[in-house]
């Protein structure tokens, strides 16, 4: 599919160079039956000014790559976005990004173009992925006029699917890290949380292979089936 099918007609004003970079972005790859050990995945975490999906802003992006069945530390992305007039709020106490860091951040167009170039056509993993998918998608629409089509898989859904014996209800990232005795160097930092999520994902992928669920396509199909069963009325 041409990149021009993804760009809204009311695309924000971009320089010629930025338009060329936007047009050169590859189409998102659909989930496939590629074995997990041969799949490139980008594990994402975002920091935002709050949890309001329509009002709050994307402040920072952290991402690492799983490739060849391992975390590739040569492929990492970290960026704080500039937001004019940003002020400290309750969220600042959580993510720790000072208004001065936001003021000195990267222009959102440049930051988001750089991230999409880093992402390429790869699928995305995140913990509670629905929030990250929405916030990233909205930022891309507002800054680039770009419609995000990359598939997301939610590690918060994969964990109970692949570990049905674990009694963790409504568990957060900290709960699953503690269960597998994983140590996060820092929490509520986009890059550190992305790394912790990637480490958790590798454990889950090992379990998936032992259950003959050795591709993102099969895992996604199992997740969809689990969602349907959860929505079905009990008899």
Automatic annotation (TrEMBL):
Under the heading CDD domains, the entry gives:
DEDDh
Q: InterPro entries, per this entry?
A: Ribonucl_H, RNaseH-like_sf, RNaseH_sf
Tell whether Nuclease is among the UniProt keywords.
yes
Every Exonuclease domain range: 40-210
Entry-linked SMART domains: EXOIII (SM00479)
Q: Which GO terms describe its molecular function?
A: 3'-5' exonuclease activity; nucleic acid binding
Reply yes or no: does the keyword Magnesium apply: no
Pfam families in UniProt: RNase_T
Q: Where are the transmembrane segments?
A: none
GO BP field: DNA metabolic process
Keyword vocabulary terms for this entry: Exonuclease, Hydrolase, Nuclease
Q: Could you tell me which PANTHER family the record lists for this protein? A: DNA POLYMERASE III SUBUNIT EPSILON (PTHR30231), PROTEIN NEN2 (PTHR30231:SF4)
Q: What is this protein called?
A: 3'-5' exonuclease
Read off the lineage from the record.
Bacteria, Pseudomonadati, Pseudomonadota, Gammaproteobacteria, Pseudomonadales
């Amino acid at each position: 599919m041409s990149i021009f099918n993804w760009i809204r007609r009311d695309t924000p004003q971009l320089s010629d160079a930025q338009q060329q970079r936007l047009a050169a972005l590859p189409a998102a790859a659909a989930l496939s039956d590629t074995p997990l050990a041969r799949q490139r995945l980008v594990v994402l975490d975002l920091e935002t000014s709050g949890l309001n999906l329509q009002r709050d802003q994307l402040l920072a992006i952290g991402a690492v790559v799983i490739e060849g069945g391992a975390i590739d530390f040569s492929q990492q992305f970290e960026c704080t976005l500039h937001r004019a007039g940003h002020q400290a709020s309750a969220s600042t106490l959580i993510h720790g990004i000072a208004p001065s860091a936001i003021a000195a951040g990267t222009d959102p167009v440049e930051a988001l173009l750089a991230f999409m170039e880093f992402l390429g056509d790869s699928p995305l993993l995140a913990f509670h992925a629905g929030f990250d998918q929405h916030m990233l998608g909205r930022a891309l629409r507002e800054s680039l006029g770009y419609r995000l089509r990359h598939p997301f898989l939610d590690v918060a859904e994969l964990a109970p699917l692949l570990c049905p014996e674990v009694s963790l209800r409504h568990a957060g990232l900290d709960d699953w890290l503690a269960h597998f005795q994983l140590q996060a160097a820092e929490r509520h930092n986009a890059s550190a949380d992305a790394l912790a999520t990637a480490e958790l994902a590798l454990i889950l992928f090992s379990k998936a292979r032992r259950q003959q669920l050795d591709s993102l396509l099969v895992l996604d199909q199992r997740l969809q089936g689990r969602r349907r069963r959860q929505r079905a009325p009990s008899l």
